[in-house]
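> example.struct
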């Protein structure tokens, strides 16, 4: 989800970065070793990076990912940079570049500090505390791109993280090895660079669950005295997570985590999160309500659409699929696991989707105009979620009608997942194409019409006129002020209608 400014708060979802790196064998002498130190009190993380220069003259590092949450000034938080005394250093903040000029080819060390002091802007709390490090007294929140330097001439296939000093006895969680401790050096392949996240602090509560035999971890904080988060999260571990694994017929995962931590710099209700490797990170304030639960449901659903499966060149190209279809899968599973009832379903469809989409100033913007406006314009940010969700609902109805209830959108999605496995086994960096989507969906619906509708509704951005659409017998659409309003026939068991 993205930064949806609602009465109750803010909702954010990061488009997934492409994190594919092909395996290459590099000489064993190359290394990239991060040594970390924190005293548990200060707002700085001290980092020393040991490396072997890839070329004789200089090494260029790029620091920070400004596209991660749109943090254009992220370079400012790397401070006190220094290198071996025999070498010299040049910093180009404009380009986020640090160049070390070498005097020899001996192993090198670059030292720097990451300033994780709170920005303390209550209005931007969710952005500043998710997409920047947070290091305050007894709290450390860190993502790989906040402390790692990226050599432009990448020669290593893995890197390591080890703690030189850290406060003893603080609970600690690192996403790459959930039950590890700071005493253990982590060796991580480059392809998993974007999946590194760690938290440390005496307030952390780390619980372990089993979902279809897969270890699931929840990381919450005792600082939240308003909610009993462990019990709020219980329905996810008991029903939603098992159900969504059933939906995808997928029980293959080493582990999964959800890290849900309270914000520091605001009391106003807000929440946001992003997927990070086999898990997801969320921050929030205020009462942990249905909206917060939807964020968790949406984000954890991204494990399949958005992370495993990307449609198009990157996650931005067809966000109607990555976000909207993901949101529809979320809703089906919330119904299945009894976490949303008929009233909640209608509210989501009518108020959060139809009303907001059909009255949005950006409702008919073309698909390719979304990416350039995504971080700048709130209406554009929300557009792919709603447009994709509404199309998924439309498509699901059409498939159910055409197959007389024997098939549904789930069949399309399972076939796409299979196709995805096939293309990834040939090329681990390949994504599904729009053509794959059309070809597979055309097993269930007439090809030509489908192609036209995708072009019309998803690429050109025209609104679906539900006055001319036949839905399954459970549903009826009326129009109020040019906005579709869904009604459910009496005596309908929604859970049964959507069962699989
Ligand atoms: Zn999302």
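> example.seq
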């Amino acid at each position: 989800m993205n930064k949806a400014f609602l009465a109750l708060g803010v909702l954010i979802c990061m488009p997934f970065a492409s994190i594919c790196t092909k395996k290459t064998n590099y000489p064993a002498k190359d290394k990239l070793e991060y040594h970390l130190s924190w005293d548990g009190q200060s707002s700085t993380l001290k980092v020393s990076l040991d490396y072997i220069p890839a070329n004789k003259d200089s090494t260029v590092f790029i620091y920070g990912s400004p596209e991660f949450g749109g943090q254009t000034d992220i370079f400012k938080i790397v401070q006190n940079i220094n290198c071996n005394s025999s070498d010299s250093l040049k910093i180009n903040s404009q380009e986020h570049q640090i160049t070390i000029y070498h005097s020899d080819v001996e192993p090198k060390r670059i030292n720097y500090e990451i300033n994780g002091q709170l920005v303390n802007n209550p209005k931007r709390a969710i952005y500043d505390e998710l997409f920047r490090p947070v290091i305050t007294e007894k709290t450390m929140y860190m993502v790989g791109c906040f402390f790692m330097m990226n050599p432009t001439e990448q020669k290593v296939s893995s890197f390591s993280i080890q703690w030189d000093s850290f406060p003893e006895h603080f609970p600690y969680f690192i996403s790459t090895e959930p039950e590890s401790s700071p005493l253990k050096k982590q060796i991580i392949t480059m392809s998993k660079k974007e999946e590194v996240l760690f938290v440390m602090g005496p307030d952390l509560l780390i619980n372990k669950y089993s979902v279809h035999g897969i270890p699931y971890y929840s990381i919450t904080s005792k600082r939240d005295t308003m909610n009993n988060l462990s019990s709020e999260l219980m329905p996810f571990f008991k029903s939603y997570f098992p159900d969504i694994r059933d939906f995808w017929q997928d029980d293959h995962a080493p582990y999964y985590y959800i890290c849900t931590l309270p914000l520091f710099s605001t009391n106003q209700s807000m929440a946001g999160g992003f997927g990070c490797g086999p898990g997801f990170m969320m921050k929030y304030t205020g009462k942990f309500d249905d909206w917060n639960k939807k964020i968790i449901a949406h984000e954890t659903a991204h494990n399949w659409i958005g992370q495993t499966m990307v449609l198009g060149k990157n996650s931005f190209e067809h966000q109607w699929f990555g976000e909207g279809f993901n949101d529809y899968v979320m809703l089906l599973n919330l119904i299945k696991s009894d976490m949303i009832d008929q009233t909640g379903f209608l509210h989501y469809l009518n108020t959060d989707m139809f009303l907001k989409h059909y009255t949005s100033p950006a409702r008919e913007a073309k698909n390719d105009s979304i990416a350039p406006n995504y971080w700048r314009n709130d209406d554009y940010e929300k557009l792919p979620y709603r447009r994709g969700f509404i199309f998924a609902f439309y498509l699901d109805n059409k498939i159910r009608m055409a197959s007389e209830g024997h098939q549904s959108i789930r069949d399309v999605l399972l076939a796409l997942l299979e196709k995805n496995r096939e293309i990834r086994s040939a090329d681990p960096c390949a994504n599904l194409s729009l053509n794959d989507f059309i070809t597979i969906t055309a097993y269930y619906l007439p090809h030509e019409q489908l192609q036209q509708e995708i072009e019309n509704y998803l690429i050109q951005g025209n609104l679906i006129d539900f006055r001319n659409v036949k839905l399954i017998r459970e549903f009826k659409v009326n129009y109020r002020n040019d906005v579709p309003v869904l009604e459910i026939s009496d005596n309908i068991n929604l859970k049964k209608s959507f069962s699989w």
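> remarks
The pocket of zinc ion is lined by residues 1, 13, 298, 302, 323, 326 (CB under 6 Å).
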